[in-house]
Amino acid sequence: MNRSTLKPSPRPSAVRTSTPSNLNDATRERVVAELNDRLADGTDLHSQVKVAHWNVKGPQFASLHPLFEAFAGQIAGWNDELAERAVILGGAAYGTVRHAARASRLAEYPCEVTRDLEHVELLVARFDTFAEGLRATRGLAEELGDIDTADLLTAMLQQHEKNGWLLRATLGV
Protein backbone atom coordinates (compact mmCIF):
# COMPACT_ATOMS: atom_id res chain seq x y z
CA MET A 1 0.00 0.00 0.00
CA ASN A 2 1.52 3.32 -0.98
CA ARG A 3 1.02 6.63 0.78
CA SER A 4 -1.48 7.91 -1.74
CA THR A 5 -3.93 5.08 -0.93
CA LEU A 6 -3.94 5.70 2.81
CA LYS A 7 -7.10 7.24 4.16
CA PRO A 8 -6.69 10.65 5.73
CA SER A 9 -6.16 10.43 9.43
CA PRO A 10 -9.08 11.57 11.53
CA ARG A 11 -8.28 14.59 13.61
CA PRO A 12 -9.14 13.40 17.09
CA SER A 13 -11.71 15.66 18.62
CA ALA A 14 -14.56 13.96 20.41
CA VAL A 15 -14.03 13.36 24.08
CA ARG A 16 -15.46 9.98 24.89
CA THR A 17 -14.72 9.01 28.44
CA SER A 18 -15.30 10.39 31.88
CA THR A 19 -12.55 12.59 33.16
CA PRO A 20 -11.42 14.20 36.39
CA SER A 21 -11.07 17.48 34.49
CA ASN A 22 -13.52 20.29 35.16
CA LEU A 23 -13.00 21.77 31.69
CA ASN A 24 -16.03 21.84 29.42
CA ASP A 25 -16.37 19.39 26.53
CA ALA A 26 -15.59 21.93 23.79
CA THR A 27 -12.37 23.00 25.53
CA ARG A 28 -11.30 19.43 26.12
CA GLU A 29 -11.98 18.52 22.48
CA ARG A 30 -9.82 21.39 21.20
CA VAL A 31 -6.99 20.61 23.61
CA VAL A 32 -7.11 16.86 22.88
CA ALA A 33 -6.86 17.56 19.13
CA GLU A 34 -3.86 19.83 19.69
CA LEU A 35 -2.19 17.31 22.00
CA ASN A 36 -2.56 14.67 19.31
CA ASP A 37 -0.99 17.04 16.78
CA ARG A 38 1.98 17.47 19.11
CA LEU A 39 2.08 13.70 19.65
CA ALA A 40 2.36 13.20 15.88
CA ASP A 41 5.24 15.68 15.75
CA GLY A 42 6.85 14.08 18.80
CA THR A 43 6.56 10.57 17.42
CA ASP A 44 8.17 11.74 14.21
CA LEU A 45 10.90 13.65 16.06
CA HIS A 46 11.70 10.59 18.16
CA SER A 47 12.19 8.45 15.05
CA GLN A 48 14.32 11.13 13.38
CA VAL A 49 16.58 11.45 16.43
CA LYS A 50 16.98 7.66 16.43
CA VAL A 51 18.00 7.76 12.75
CA ALA A 52 20.65 10.35 13.64
CA HIS A 53 21.76 8.21 16.59
CA TRP A 54 22.14 5.11 14.44
CA ASN A 55 23.85 6.75 11.47
CA VAL A 56 26.14 9.41 12.95
CA LYS A 57 29.81 9.22 11.99
CA GLY A 58 32.70 11.64 12.27
CA PRO A 59 34.93 13.33 14.84
CA GLN A 60 31.97 14.15 17.13
CA PHE A 61 30.65 10.56 17.15
CA ALA A 62 31.69 9.77 20.73
CA SER A 63 29.74 12.71 22.13
CA LEU A 64 26.80 12.81 19.70
CA HIS A 65 25.87 9.13 19.69
CA PRO A 66 24.97 9.06 23.42
CA LEU A 67 23.54 12.60 23.29
CA PHE A 68 21.11 11.61 20.53
CA GLU A 69 20.14 8.52 22.52
CA ALA A 70 19.45 10.69 25.58
CA PHE A 71 17.31 13.02 23.44
CA ALA A 72 15.35 10.05 22.09
CA GLY A 73 14.64 8.82 25.61
CA GLN A 74 13.43 12.25 26.70
CA ILE A 75 11.22 12.63 23.65
CA ALA A 76 9.70 9.19 24.25
CA GLY A 77 8.84 10.31 27.77
CA TRP A 78 7.30 13.57 26.50
CA ASN A 79 5.24 11.63 23.97
CA ASP A 80 3.90 9.50 26.80
CA GLU A 81 2.96 12.63 28.75
CA LEU A 82 1.18 14.14 25.72
CA ALA A 83 -0.74 10.92 25.09
CA GLU A 84 -1.73 10.47 28.71
CA ARG A 85 -2.90 14.10 28.99
CA ALA A 86 -5.15 13.59 25.95
CA VAL A 87 -6.66 10.51 27.60
CA ILE A 88 -6.98 12.24 30.99
CA LEU A 89 -9.06 14.90 29.21
CA GLY A 90 -11.40 12.18 27.95
CA GLY A 91 -9.98 11.76 24.46
CA ALA A 92 -7.90 9.12 22.73
CA ALA A 93 -4.20 9.18 21.99
CA TYR A 94 -3.32 8.77 18.31
CA GLY A 95 0.30 7.71 18.55
CA THR A 96 0.94 5.24 15.77
CA VAL A 97 3.73 5.83 13.29
CA ARG A 98 1.17 5.80 10.48
CA HIS A 99 -0.74 8.60 12.14
CA ALA A 100 2.50 10.50 12.71
CA ALA A 101 3.47 10.05 9.06
CA ARG A 102 0.21 11.66 7.98
CA ALA A 103 0.00 14.37 10.62
CA SER A 104 3.56 15.47 11.50
CA ARG A 105 4.66 18.97 10.54
CA LEU A 106 8.35 18.00 10.62
CA ALA A 107 10.33 17.79 7.40
CA GLU A 108 11.31 14.31 6.25
CA TYR A 109 14.70 13.21 7.59
CA PRO A 110 17.31 12.19 4.99
CA CYS A 111 18.38 8.75 6.21
CA GLU A 112 21.51 8.71 4.06
CA VAL A 113 23.19 11.48 6.08
CA THR A 114 26.15 10.28 8.14
CA ARG A 115 28.30 13.35 8.95
CA ASP A 116 28.10 14.34 12.58
CA LEU A 117 27.52 18.08 12.25
CA GLU A 118 25.11 17.63 9.37
CA HIS A 119 22.92 15.56 11.71
CA VAL A 120 23.15 18.33 14.29
CA GLU A 121 22.03 20.95 11.75
CA LEU A 122 19.10 18.78 10.64
CA LEU A 123 18.02 18.18 14.22
CA VAL A 124 18.19 21.88 15.09
CA ALA A 125 15.63 22.59 12.37
CA ARG A 126 13.34 19.79 13.53
CA PHE A 127 13.68 20.76 17.20
CA ASP A 128 12.67 24.30 16.23
CA THR A 129 9.55 23.06 14.43
CA PHE A 130 8.61 20.90 17.39
CA ALA A 131 9.09 23.84 19.79
CA GLU A 132 6.88 26.08 17.62
CA GLY A 133 4.08 23.55 17.93
CA LEU A 134 4.53 23.22 21.69
CA ARG A 135 4.37 27.00 22.08
CA ALA A 136 1.23 27.28 19.96
CA THR A 137 -0.51 24.51 21.88
CA ARG A 138 0.56 26.01 25.20
CA GLY A 139 -0.89 29.36 24.10
CA LEU A 140 -4.18 27.73 23.19
CA ALA A 141 -4.30 25.84 26.50
CA GLU A 142 -3.68 29.10 28.39
CA GLU A 143 -6.33 30.91 26.35
CA LEU A 144 -8.86 28.15 27.10
CA GLY A 145 -8.00 28.07 30.80
CA ASP A 146 -6.36 24.62 30.77
CA ILE A 147 -3.52 25.54 33.10
CA ASP A 148 -2.51 21.91 33.71
CA THR A 149 -1.86 21.28 30.01
CA ALA A 150 -0.08 24.65 29.77
CA ASP A 151 2.14 23.67 32.71
CA LEU A 152 2.98 20.32 31.08
CA LEU A 153 3.91 22.06 27.83
CA THR A 154 6.00 24.66 29.68
CA ALA A 155 8.02 21.91 31.36
CA MET A 156 8.48 20.18 28.01
CA LEU A 157 9.59 23.42 26.39
CA GLN A 158 12.14 24.12 29.11
CA GLN A 159 13.86 20.78 28.53
CA HIS A 160 13.44 20.98 24.78
CA GLU A 161 14.99 24.45 24.60
CA LYS A 162 17.94 23.22 26.66
CA ASN A 163 18.44 20.39 24.18
CA GLY A 164 18.23 22.86 21.29
CA TRP A 165 20.89 24.95 23.00
CA LEU A 166 23.14 21.87 23.32
CA LEU A 167 22.78 21.25 19.58
CA ARG A 168 23.47 24.89 18.68
CA ALA A 169 26.49 24.99 20.98
CA THR A 170 27.84 21.92 19.19
CA LEU A 171 27.64 23.93 15.95
CA GLY A 172 29.30 26.91 17.62
CA VAL A 173 26.31 29.20 17.00
Question: Overview of this structure, please?
Answer:
This protein has 173 residues and is mainly α. The protein has five helices and no strands. The longest helix has 31 residues, at 25-55. The relative contact order is 0.18. Residues 1-9 have low confidence and may be disordered.
List its traits:
173 residues; mainly alpha; Ferritin; elongated; disordered N terminus
Overall helicity: 55-70%
Strand count:
0
Oligomer: single chain
What structural category characterises the helix and strand content? Answer: mainly alpha
Compact overview of the structure:
This protein is mainly α and 173 residues long. It is 69% helix and 0% strand. The protein has one domain: Ferritin (Up-down Bundle).
Question: Helices, strands, pairings?
Answer:
Blueprint: H1 25-55, H2 61-88, H3 97-103, H4 116-143, H5 147-171
Helix pairs in contact: 1-2, 1-3, 1-4, 2-5, 4-5
